[in-house]
Each structure stands twice: as C-alpha cells, then as structure tokens.
TrEMBL record:
A Pfam family this chain is assigned to: HET
Natural source organism: Hyaloscypha bicolor E
Entry superkingdom: Eukaryota
Signal peptide start-end: none
Protein name (record): Heterokaryon incompatibility domain-containing protein
Bias (Basic and acidic residues): 1-21
Chain residue ranges for the region called Disordered: 1-33
Domain Heterokaryon incompatibility: 63-218
Length: 638
C-alpha cells in the first residue's frame, strides 16, 4: 500500500492503547494475544455486485490481502462501493472490473476499502498491524501498474531461471543436475536493464511495486504471492515523453526486482542456515511470477523475526524505493520485527525522534545494528543519547539502510576500553596548505588557484575511491537518482555529482590511484564542471559516499558536518565530523579498537569507530563518520 504525493504514509484499521515509547514489547500475530485482545480487522467481500464489510479476526478467518501502489489518488465514487474512496483512476477501474473476479467470494483486506482514509489516526494506527495482516492472509495479491514491463521485456530476459546468473542459479530447477551452462553473454537481470535502456528510451515505465516502499514490506511478509496487472484506462493519462528522472529511474527496475526476490526468499532465515538457503531457494520463482503474472510460494511458513540482520541492511544499501513521508521508513519497516513497538503519537513525532526511539529499542535487545550517528555520555557501551541536530531525513530506502549501518559498540560496566589517538585535519586546512605550496603564492592568479583546487579535488576523490572500496561500487544507482531529482536551480550540486560520476566511471583498476588521478586532471570536462565551484561541495559528496551517508542530504551535510582527512596505517581517508566537535579547537579524536569483525554482531560492515571528545568531558563522546574497510585498513595509496 505504497503512498504517493501528499498522501499520508501510514494506514490502519483501528485504534488501540499504545505503550510508552522506548519500551520493547512483542509484536506480530503469535504474540498479540498474550498482551492484548485478539486483533480484529474490517474485511470485505463481494456479493451480488455489492461490497460487504464485516469486522473479523484474521487469525481465524481465511482472507486475501491486496498490496498496491496508490498512484495519483483522488476522491471518487466507484460502482458497487457505497461511499467515496481515494484511489487513482486506474485503481478504480481495477476495483470495479478486475478485483471481483480475482477474489471471488473470499474475504479480503485492501487499505482503501477497509480503512477510513479521512481518519488520520486510523491510518497511522494500522501500521503496527500491517505485519499481522500479510502474515495471516492466505495469499497476497500484488497489483502491478499497467505501464510497467512489457511482453518484450520478459522476452529480452530469456530463460528466467538465469535471471540472477548464467550458471549457479540454473541448478534451482533441478538440484540433482550438475550440468551447468557457463555460456557467454549477460545474465537475465543485465539483459533486462540493457533492453529497457535501449528499447524503451524516452518512454515512461511505472512499476510501483519495484519503486515504492510499502509493497516491499507487504510482499516479504507474505508466504504466497499472486501478481496481477491493472488494465489501462481508456482515454486516461496520455503517454508522455520521459523526463530525465524517468529515464534514470528505469534501469533501476531490474536491480529492484532482484533485491525484492532475494529479500522475499530469504526473509527470516538465520546465519546458521547453509549458504545456499540464505541466498534464497525461491527467488527465481518470484521473478517468474512477477513477469508472467503467476503465483510464487516460499518453501517455509513465515517466521516472526525478532530483529533485522545485516543482510537486510546490505540488500538495500543502494535501494531507491521511496515513500510519501520520511517517518514511513520507520513505520513501514520496523513493525514486522518482534522487538519494535510504535511509540505514542507516532504521527506527531519527527523522523529523528522516531529513528532514535527505534535505535534505543534495538539497543535494549542488544542487536547487531547501530546508528551511523551517536552522541551520548554512554557512547562506548552503545547507548543512544540525544542529538544536537536533527538527523538527515531519508529520501529513499537506501538512505535509511545507511543510517542503521554504524559500528556496534559494547563496553560492559567495569571493562577496559582501548582508545587509539587519531590524527585528523579539516579539509579546509588541507586545501589552504596545498595552496600555500604553490610557487609565488602571494602572486598566484585566481585562474591558477582554481586549477590547483581542481587538481587537489580530483586527487582527493580518486584516492578516496581507492582507499574506501566498500561503498563506492554501489554508488551508481544513488548518483543516477540524485542527478534525476536535482532541481534545475541547484547548479553547483548537479555539476559536482556529474564530476564524481565521470571519475567513478573512468576509474581504471589496472592503474593505481595516483595514475588515475593524473590522467583525470587532463579531462577538460572535469575542469569545466569544477570551475568556480566551492571545493567543499565535491569533497563533502565524496566523504558522504565513502562513509555511507545518503548524498540526497548534501545540504544537511554542508550545514552540519565537516569533511576531515585522517591517516591510518599511512593511508588517508575522508571522514565526516559533526560541526559541534569539528569546529572546537579542544576536540581530540580516537579510534575504538576492536577485535575480529563478525557480521550481524558488530554491524553490517566492518568499521573502526571514530570518536570525538574533549578530554575534560569525562567520557562524553560523539561518533564521527569513518569509511568501512573489510580489513580495518586501506590499501596502498600510490
């Protein structure tokens, strides 16, 4: 039930007394009866062309759940429905002409029919119970848009069992067959992306199930999925020429389908399962069902999951899925996990308040996830304190995944913690010192000073790419999304991202970072993009990509963070420190040394924790942003 535009992101069918924020309570269908009366839902059923409604228990009723994207919704009257509902014209046509034959005489739940969309409190209240709806449902009907993948797209993929790779996944049809095809050519996913880019250039292709947040959550909670597709509205919205945003968004659809299939197939699996089980037995079945409008079933019943794990984070670090309100990135995702209970008055809370409350609940159950930002007098044992500034609101799912991708710190009372002194220099000082090294600095022209700045920016960014290799390889979708979404008047931001895109795209891994940087300083296009641009913009963007902060929040980072250079094992890294500590002359920086990294216990990516504090503050530290590194050290720079 993805929400668009001005639509409030949350939905619910009833009110309930909510517990105190911060208290961890059980959630999910298997536990609700222990703490509260059984959940009651308003369900619908078609009978003689009319829509009947009745309040029923989902635990004892066979019913279907409908997952869909709202689109351009408006209030309208639909034949067979007594009251006005808020839907798009295409969805109204679907409800009138297709839905009755799909559900037959079965009870079903669909947000626009079962929740009073004029009642904001009801819409927010339901979010806590959405996991129960889709877990209890016999089958989920996922409704695709009429303007999505075409028949030619499915044909371009070829054998759908080779969607993920040309070899390994072939075995999923017959696990006893050792004859694996290692033929040349692209796998199905890349064939799809190539086909969309080449054959549908200039066209608008909407697949809300792959671009919006709510359908992802509803589908992964469902053991059995049936995909259907809306019919186009005659005389409806006419085909239009794709905008830059449309064009850049389309190639992401193939990757989003792959991530959806992987997430659904492995949902609830733990790390004790064999690797093959963890990469998903049934991911190909979901891809086929999506493309061919069929049905896919998991090999096991949905398990209630206590906590998200690092695989949940890693699969969506570059996700561009969106939703209507920033708070929905918490309220749509977290209620599926047993640890989480939505706080009181969730609708009135800011994203920062909801996020910190979620992190405190994660901390109470000693999860292997930690926020990217932390300020606390108990920082070394991972307790979450208040922040001096609001967090950057996520614009897409990848932004949220990155905010939950910090280092996990544990320091039991009475234990000893080793802190290693870290030497950091603000990039402003680095740039100033570099300029003073120019011959005849006092007489240098603005042109030559700009040229020197450009060269230093290029070398700094390229060095950062080579020394922070964990997150840069997945930056392509994020950069494309930002280029598409940047408003026309944000010229400096656009030019800076385009410059980074050129540098990433032309990296030659057969050369070292110095050779790459020297070659790029000869690109006239780079110098033109960087001309008259404050160096802080491209340097801050590079630091955000290196450290794992969504670049959609560049303005926030420029206002609240300082780019710094730290040297570890003779390798320099770009880091980000909050201005509250970076602008103080008394701040000292430390690395919290850790042992061997264990995924899921210490976070989703191995990181050294970079701490900033004043020696006189008696243990009060601020967590700075430092790039993850698989070996806790970088490779040689030059």
């Amino acid at each position: 039930m993805a929400l668009d535009g001005d639509r409030d992101a949350t939905i619910v069918r009833g009110k309930e007394t909510e517990p105190d924020a911060g208290k961890v309570q059980a959630a999910g269908p298997s536990r609700e009866s222990e703490a509260a009366p059984p959940l009651q839902l308003l369900l619908c059923r078609f009978q003689a062309g009319k829509l009947l409604k009745s309040v029923m228990s989902p635990a004892s009723t066979d019913f279907l759940a409908i997952s869909h994207v709202w689109g351009k919704a408006e209030w309208m009257k639909v034949d067979g429905i007594e009251h006005e509902i808020r839907v798009s014209r295409e969805k109204a046509k679907f409800i009138k002409e297709q839905l009755p034959s799909i559900v037959g005489d079965q009870w079903f739940w669909m947000d626009v029919l079962c929740i009073n969309q004029r009642d904001d409190e009801a819409r927010v209240a339901i979010t806590q119970h959405i996991p129960s709806v889709f877990r209890f449902a016999q089958r989920t009907i996922a409704v695709r848009d009429s303007s999505g993948f075409k028949e030619c797209c499915t044909k371009a993929i070829g054998d759908p069992y080779l969607f993920f790779s040309k070899s390994r996944d072939w075995r999923s049809r017959n696990e006893d067959d050792s004859d694996v095809n290692f033929g040349e050519g692209l796998d199905g996913r890349r064939r799809l992306i190539e086909h969309i880019t080449e054959e549908h250039a200039g066209h608008v292709m909407n697949e809300g199930i792959l671009t919006r947040l709510w359908p992802l959550q509803e589908i992964i909670l469902s053991d059995k999925i049936q995909f259907v597709r809306c019919k186009p509205v005659e005389g409806g919205e006419q085909p239009r020429i794709a905008t830059e945003y449309d064009a850049r968004k389309m190639p992401v659809l193939g990757q989003s389908l792959a991530a959806l299939a992987m997430t659904w197939s492995t949902h609830g699996e733990d790390h004790n399962d064999p690797m093959r089980h963890r990469i998903g037995f049934t991911k190909n079945e979901l891809v086929i069902a999506f493309l061919e409008l069929g049905t896919a079933s998991r090999r096991y019943e949905n398990r209630e999951v206590l906590l998200p794990n690092e695989r949940d984070i890693m699969l969506h670090l570059n996700s561009t899925r969106e939703t209507g309100r920033a708070r929905d990135f918490i309220l749509a995702i977290m209620p599926q996990y047993g640890f989480y209970k939505a706080p009181k008055k969730a609708k009135q809370l800011t994203f920062t308040e909801l996020f910190l409350d979620c992190c405190r609940q994660l901390r109470e159950v000693d999860s292997g996830l930690s926020p990217l930002f932390l300020e606390s007098d108990h920082l070394l044992d991972g307790r979450v304190g208040p922040l001096k500034v609001d967090l950057p609101e996520p614009k897409c799912l990848g932004d949220l995944a990155k905010l939950l991708n910090g280092p996990v710190m544990r320091c039991p009372p009475g234990s000893k913690v080793d802190l290693a002194k870290a030497d950091g220099v603000p990039m402003a000082k680095v740039m100033e010192n570099a300029a003073r090294m120019l011959p005849d600095f006092a007489e240098v022209t603005d042109h030559h000073l700009q040229l020197a700045h450009n060269v230093l920016v290029i070398h700094t960014v390229v060095r950062s790419i080579f020394n922070s290799t964990v997150l840069w390889p997945i930056s392509h979708h994020e950069i494309n999304r930002e280029l598409a979404a940047i408003p026309p008047d944000a010229d400096d931001k656009r030019r800076a991202i385009e410059a980074l895109h050129i540098m990433i795209s032309t990296i030659d891994l057969d050369e070292n970072s110095y050779e790459n940087a020297v070659r790029m300083t000869e690109y006239p296009a780079l110098h033109e993009l960087l001309r008259n641009m404050p160096w802080r913009i491209p340097i801050t963007l590079a630091a955000m990509l290196s450290c794992g902060l969504g670049i959609s929040r560049l303005d926030w980072a420029l206002e609240n963070m300082t780019a710094m250079q730290f040297v570890v094992n003779e390798v320099s890294y770009l880091a980000l420190a909050p201005n509250s500590v970076a602008l103080s002359g008394d701040t000292a920086y430390y690395f919290k040394e850790g042992g061997e990294f264990f995924g899921g216990r210490d976070g989703s990516l191995p990181r050294q924790a970079l701490l900033a504090g004043n020696p006189e503050t008696d243990g009060y530290f601020t967590l700075c942003l430092f790039p993850p590194d698989t070996k806790f050290k970088g490779s040689r720079e030059y």
